[in-house]
Amino acid sequence: FDAFYFCFITSTTIGFGDMTPDIAGEDKSLYMMVCTVYILLGLAFTSTIIEIVRRQMVENLRKMQELRAQIQAQIKLAETLKKLSDNAEKNNIDIGVNISDDLEQLR
Length: 107
Known about the structure:
Elements: H1 2-11, H2 28-90, H3 99-106
């Protein structure tokens, strides 16, 4: 568990400082160098994952905004067609299509 805890705390840059890489013996420099490289690679990997998630969220937001704009345009078009149909009925003009009924069926 200590190894997982150290990796998670270090790679997410939380860094409580309660656990540090340490080794008993003569050759500490190689161990510390490997630990430093591991930490830097872990930070790069974590940053990459965060960036990928951010880009996906921005893309989804953009698609939702496009869909919303399309729906609003269709609603505006439907309202305009209904007004045209109502005006045609008032003036006794037969346009060959009953737009009001079609719009009610769509709802």
